[in-house]
Amino acid sequence: MAVFSWGLTALLIGMVVGATCYTLIALYAACKFQRTKPLGSVGFTPPVSLLKPLYGLDRKLERNLESFCTQTYPVYEILFSVRHESDPSVAVVRKLQQQFPSLPIRLLVTGPPRYLNAKVHGLEEMAKAARYDIFIISDSDVRVGPEYLKGVVAPFAGPSVGMTTCLSRGVPSNSVWSVMEALGMNTQFLPGVLSAWLLIGMEFALGPTMVIRKQQLEEIGGFRILRDYLADDFVLGETVAKAGYGVVLTHVIPDHLFGGHTMSESLAHRLRWERSSKCSRPAGYVGQVFTHSLPLALLAVALAPQARTYVLAMTALCIVARFALAWKVGWSLLRDSTLRKFWWLLPIEDLLSFGIWCWAFFGGEIVWRGTRLKVLRGGKMVATGNAMEEPAPAATR
């Protein structure tokens, strides 16, 4: 029994040490990224096509879309797609067409989706209609500054670049659940992205912004390769990297406006995210245990009384490193006002995040836009019911 107890103690201490080391690596990655000069040339401004699939009214949708209409970029067009003319986002697009008559804004009504990932159907149709050879894919819950297009396109001045993506600043609603989700993204998820950027390079993309040449897209099989994947951003970036092209993490940081007003909405969204990650890269998901430094430290304090003094010292170091990382990424890099106001919620968010990470191991079912699906190993989705029967888009989501 004593051997088991010391074995557990050693395991817990090892995990706390590993988590602290990871935190220090992520802190170094954030510092290095901030010092790295942006790639490419700001004078490289070829015509581009902005592709934005819409479904219902995301939070502050009109302001989000309007930010893409006021870019300091010489020539670009915006294509929106909806499944049906009755979608409430159509009125927003029509208003923008009247407000910005000199900007080419087109709305495509694509009909019911052909794939489980309905977004891919809209992207295919917009790609067919696009005039230009560089596609910027951006979600409807993203808001950007006027230099956004210049920043995400500039690296394409180099011929080896096949794709660009960027971090995004989580911006919550006035719900505490949305606030905690934003804190988790800005201080835990994004440090993980920066760690990957430092250690192995970018072998994936982030959904709020993905930029790719039409030529590279056609070489890898087009948007159709994403049709049955929930994590379409991860798969697209991974496929581009495997094809031998560089994926560049730009220094542009747009806002990503979160919904999740209620507890059930937020937990469902986060569980979907975690299960998608678990199925897309199982080994990497298990390794994410080291991103949960504070819960691991508290477990060590509770379950390793034999080395209480040592564990308490490690826990103190772990907590200091955790808050230093959160401040470096959340404020110094992202300028996240949510962190400045709600930093005291970080321990609660860390415990909640750890609970959701554990929960994701049990089962593979998700609910996405009112449809129940199962995510298989490798990240593909299969229907568990009548998955292609689309629910009506919500007037507010």
Report on this model:
The protein folds into two domains: 2-32 and 286-359, no CATH class; 34-276, Spore Coat Polysaccharide Biosynthesis Protein SpsA, Chain A. 49% of the residues lie in helices and 15% in strands. It has helices at 2-35, 61-68, 89-99, 118-129, 148-153, 176-199, 214-219, 232-242, 263-280, 282-287, 293-303, 308-333, 337-342, 346-359; strands at residues 48-53, 76-82, 105-109, 134-138, 142-143, 161-166, 169-171, 209-213, 246-250, 255-257, 365-368, 371-375, 381-383. The strands form three sheets. A seven-stranded mixed sheet has the order 3-2-1-4-8-6-9, with helices on both faces. Strand 1, helix 2 and strand 2 (76-82) form a beta-alpha-beta unit. Helix 1 (2-35) crosses helix 6. The radius of gyration is 22 Å and the shape is globular. The mean pLDDT is 89.
List keywords for this structure.
Spore Coat Polysaccharide Biosynthesis Protein SpsA, Chain A, 7-stranded mixed β-sheet, 14 helices, globular
Oligomeric category: single chain
Straight-line distance between termini: 53 Å
Q: What is the name of the CATH class of the largest domain?
A: Alpha Beta
CATH topology annotation of the largest domain: Spore Coat Polysaccharide Biosynthesis Protein SpsA, Chain A
Number of strands: 13
Largest sheet: 7 strands, mixed
Report the mean per-residue pLDDT as an integer.
89
Give the strand line-up of the largest sheet.
3-2-1-4-8-6-9
Low-confidence stretches: none
Please identify the structural class as seen in this structure: alpha/beta
CATH superfamily of the largest domain: Spore Coat Polysaccharide Biosynthesis Protein SpsA, Chain A
Using the alpha-carbon principal axes, give the shape. Answer: globular
